Amino acid sequence: MYWDNHLRRVYEFAEPRLFLPMVQASRAHVVMLAERGLLPADRAKRLLDGLDTLRSPVPAPAFDGTFEDVYYLMEKRLAEVSGIDRSELDVQLARSRNDLDAGVFRWAVRDDLLTLADVVISETRSATDAAQRYADALIIGFTHRRPAQPTTIGHVLAGLVEARLSLLREWVDVYDEVNVSPLGSAAFAGTDLAIDPGRVAEMLGFATTFRSSYDAVAGAEHLFRPAALYARFGATTARFARTLLDWMTRGWVQTPEEFTQGSSIMPQKRNPVVLEHLCSYAGAAAGDLASVANNIGVAYFEDSNNATTDVQPYLARAADRAIRTARLTAGLIAALRVGELPTDEEIVASGSTATSAAEELARQGIPWRGAHGVIHDLVLAGTPAEWSPRQVDAAVRAAGFGPLPDGGAQRVIDAATDPTRVLRRTQPGSPGIEAVQAYSAAARQELAGIEDAVTRRRAALRDAASRLDAAVAAIR
After folding, report:
1. Residues 358-409: pLDDT tens digits?
2. Do 446 and 437 meet the contact criterion of CB atoms below 8 Å apart?
3. What is the SS3 assignment for 390?
4. pLDDT band (50, 70, 90) for residue 57
5. Residue boundaries of the structural domains of the chain
6. How far apart are the first and last CA of the chain?
7. Each residue of 237-281: pLDDT tens digit?
8. Distance (Å, rounded) from C-alpha 167 to C-alpha 40?
9. Which class for 157: exposed (0-12), middle (13-18), buried (19 or more C-beta within 10 A)?
């Protein structure tokens, strides 16, 4: 009953994900034991020959109860291909399933993080290009689902880029925290044998090794952080998806055919359901984060399945979902095409230019709160297109201010009826065309730096694999 309801399911998840990393970790461990004189050369060679055989992909055997988990499957197969009895195996000398499981799971998580970084960098580069391309695409910006101020599609996309850069900065730190080797901590208290954990870490591409053998097995900070990263990515994507859905509904951007489904009854309908899926993905990512946190939170601060094995499926599922989210969002951004943008008159009629009118009054010496109140009263009386200089002057006097300088009332009306003013703003980070273009250039530069950091970390893994192969060859 235990096999059928738990162990089988854990094995079916873990075998394709962890078996080969477990073989690689075992190769490094055996090399280290031989180099330290803890394992005779002939026995080390026999094990390395067998482990190299296990590196060749073969269909995973069905779970039949003759092994408990992926580790014991590896032991069983290693004895078979080495032509020895399991009692003659040395592969687990000075090692526990505890530190091995922690090590290979860190391996799997760092692979997920590298894949995610690649697709988010690609998506962010597309968003940066689109921000620059649509820096002059004037629309109505919303707050609290109400028209607020004029902005541009490029300005909103620049905001998405900034959010992605923030995530990628965090990614570097999370990756480095994950990429710490727990191997050598054994069950949690280390070993009396003179092993070299640093050598194992070096051959497996871990940047550093553990500082506390207890935390190496019992700790879980490095599991919280990727889960939070995936949930954060999903949440920001869902928020952008909702905004994009609004734009499509208003016709400001075209609905890309390749991301829609048709209606079974309404011939004219093309439903952008991908945007709905992205929102659902975000909810699921938050749920996986909660599952990771809850499993770890109910565990003792020691080796425990709650905080290790039982967490792994949630974290792996969240990583896969985040990667698919990034690919879908990248596709949406690449397919983004401007539709029929709101006219200047529509933007003015929405009330979005009222703040500029109040700022013009403040520029003419009216205290801000008073200017705010004057424009509020004018907006209640009619849209800015209907205002007259006499009406503006009267509203200022009624509020106890004024008189305005010559032409002052007309300048207020000009501010209230010209939404394109935002395109000429020079304030860094604003919707001004030059400001968005300047931000895009700076974002590309930062993105290139992050991409270089990811490339260096990937290259370090390749170099480590070469060092491990060379070390194995030297013994064999």
Report:
1. 999 999 999 999 999 999 999 999 999 999 999 999 999 999 997 999 999 9
2. no
3. helix
4. confident
5. 2-93, 105-196+220-342+438-467, 354-417
6. 44
7. 999 999 999 999 999 999 899 999 998 999 988 899 999 999 999
8. 48
9. buried
Q: How many CB atoms lie within 10 A of CB 90?
A: 17
**Cβ–Cβ < 8 Å for 164, 178:** no
Nearest alpha carbon to residue 383 among 435, 345, 433, 355: 345
Is the pLDDT confidence value at 312 over 90? yes
On whether the CB atoms of residues 317 and 232 are closer than 8 A, the answer is no
CB 322 within 8 A of CB 116: yes
> Mean of the pLDDT values across residues 120-135?
97
φ/ψ (deg, to 5) at 295: -65, -45
Task: Find residue 140's DSSP bridge partners.
Answer: 150
> Measured between alpha carbons, how far is 374 from 393 in angstroms, rounded to an integer?
10
CB-based burial, 417-434: b 16+ in 10 Å, e otherwise = bbbebbbebeeeebbbbe
Nearest in space to 175 (alpha carbons), one of 209, 207, 210, 200: 207
Q: Each residue of 64-101: pLDDT tens digit?
A: 988 999 999 999 999 999 999 999 999 999 999 999 99
What is the crossing angle of helices 70-82 and 97-133, to 10°?
Answer: 110
- CA atoms of 249 and 275, how far apart (whole Å): 12
Q: How far apart are the C-alpha atoms of 282 and 236, rounded to whole Å? A: 8
3-state SS of the chain: helix, strand, coil percent to 5? 70, 5, 25
C-alpha to C-alpha distance for 156 and 139, rounded to whole angstroms:
10
| DSSP output for 397-416 | HHTT--PPPTTHHHHHHHHH
Residue 36 backbone zone (phi > 0: left; psi -120 to 50: alpha; other: beta)? alpha
Report residue 152: phi and psi, to 5°. -130, 160
Distance CA 76, CA 84 (A): 10
- Global pTM exceeds 0.85: yes
State the Cα–Cα distance between residues 27 and 97, nearest whole angstrom.
Answer: 15
Q: How far apart are CA 154 and CA 130, in angstroms?
A: 7
The CATH topology of domain 105-196+220-342+438-467 is Fumarase C; Chain A, domain 2 (1.20.200)
